[in-house]
Amino acid sequence: MRIIDVREVAVPLHGNITNSVVNFAEHTVSLVAVQTDVRRNGRPLTGIAFNSIGRHAQGGILRDRMIPRLLAADPGALLDPSTGLLSPARVLECAMRDEKPGGHGDRAAAAGAVELAVWDLLAKHHDEPAHAAIARAFDRRPMTTGVPVYAAGGYYHPGDSLDRLRDELAGYADEGYPTVKIKIGGLPLPEDLARVEAAVEVMGGGAGVAVDANARFDRAQALAYAEALAGLGLRWYEEATDPLDYALHRELTEAYPGAIATGENLFSVQDVRNLLAYGGVRPDRDIFQMDAGLSYGLTEYARMIEAMESCGVDRSQAFPHGGHLINLHVVIGLGLGGCEAYPGVFEPFGGYSPDCRLSDGLIHPGQAPGFGLEAKPGLGDEITNLLKELDS
Ligand code: MG
Questions:
Q1: Which of 2, 189, 282, 348 allows an S-S link to 378, with CB 3.0 to 4.6 Å?
Q2: Residue 34 pLDDT > 80, yes or no?
Q3: Is the dihedral of CA 225, 341, 365, 33 positive or negative?
């Protein structure tokens, strides 16, 4: 097996929604295809993935640096010697050749898209869903009972109101989501608190509501919100402050009794080790949200889970950021705590395909080979266009 081409296209996210820091109207995502010389159904076997959601497309890094390295490499150096198939870890290593350690910014998302496309390719090679390939690679059995899923919404919309928020959240509850997440930090505390209280009312208690500040707060704001939210019994309080401010994170864990969630903006295992060492993490409750698509792919992500476990944090406390099919397969394959979902948001990448099933608050994957991205309305069309480009 050898790589014959790698292509990337930047696909715009649909919609005009805002958290406390970012408006997503101009956001794009890198959709990547890794094509091999193996033939399947009359076509080259091709792996497809994307760099999750929220960090923009990374076509420059891919086309200028990573793709040329992969195409120039000795094909044998990219293979797992025990299988003769592409090795995600070796592909990642090659994509990262001549890159200095540290930093872990946009290149982590660029590399993540390529590395994950190799997982899609391996699963398609074995004609199995990606979670099966992932579980086998890490000596695990895939979860068969479905995984807990929560609806991430509650963004700030133009001309927003509490009634609109209530309607949105009631819609998620009606669809079968037992837990929702809403944004905080985009309004003064009293108005934000009214939003949170409305959410708690709609969901029948704080356990059904998580809140996310998207790293907006300074120390005083983070602690003021901690005090205001402490009595509500929320599912978790997410990314109050700068993701790399471990000292403040420690202070927050000492001030806030409930679960604190963070990690979606940590892109390397070293960042996660620092969080574990210096962030005051409470192994019995806190939530970890690193996202393979933003952090060099599954190879690095699995090392992060290992780092958590070495500090006494159970993998069931991992809820990856990014409510999409790739992370659904990662969660099932690695036996993690659960998934995010973005019902109706961040199309065409957000949410699940029609062959996935939500019941009793659990999401079950479809059985299509790979991540099953081709089955997702809208995304399937983008993939068809990308494959046509490869053929041309
Ligand atoms: Mg978040």
A1: 348
A2: yes
A3: negative
In sequence order, what are the beta bridge partners of 238? Answer: 212, 261
Q: Is the peptide bond before 348 cis (omega within 30 degrees of 0)?
A: yes
146 is written with which tokens? 């479905």
Q: Tell me how far apart the alpha carbons of residues 18 and 309 are, in angstroms, rounded to a whole number.
A: 34
pLDDT of 16 above 80: no
Report the percent of the chain where pLDDT is more than 70: 100
- Cα 25 to Cα 14: distance, rounded to the nearest angstrom: 7
Contact 131, 142 (CB under 8 A): yes
329, two tokens: 């397969």
Q: What six digits make up the tokens of 240?
A: 């109050």
Q: What distance in angstroms lies between residue 346's CA and the mean position of ligand 1's atoms?
A: 14
Which own/partner pairs from 135-141 qualify as long-range (CB within 8 Å, at least 24 positions apart)?
135/332, 135/333, 135/334, 135/335, 138/302, 138/333, 138/334, 140/333, 140/334, 140/335
The pLDDT value recorded for residue 158 is 86
Q: What is the pLDDT of residues 119-177, one digit of tens each?
A: 999 999 999 999 999 999 999 998 889 999 999 999 998 889 999 999 999 999 999 99
Active site positions, annotated: 183, 321
Q: How far is the CA of 241 from the centre of ligand 1 (A)?
A: 11
Give which of 319, 376, 383, 371 is closest to 133, Cα–Cα: 371
The pairing of strands 236-238 and 209-212 is parallel
Give the per-residue pLDDT at 21: 84
Rounded Cα–Cα distance for residues 20 and 186 (Å): 4
Q: How far is the CA of 287 from the centre of ligand 1 (A)?
A: 11
CA-based angle 321:325:326, to the nearest 5?
A: 70
Q: What pTM, to 2 d.p., does this model score?
A: 0.97
| Whole-number Å distance between alpha carbons of 156 and 181 | 13
Nearest in space to 120 (alpha carbons), one of 376, 296, 334, 372: 372
Structure tokens at 118: 């190799």
| Alpha-helical runs (H) found in the chain | 59-61, 67-72, 88-95, 106-125, 130-137, 162-175, 189-203, 219-229, 246-255, 269-278, 298-310, 325-334, 379-391
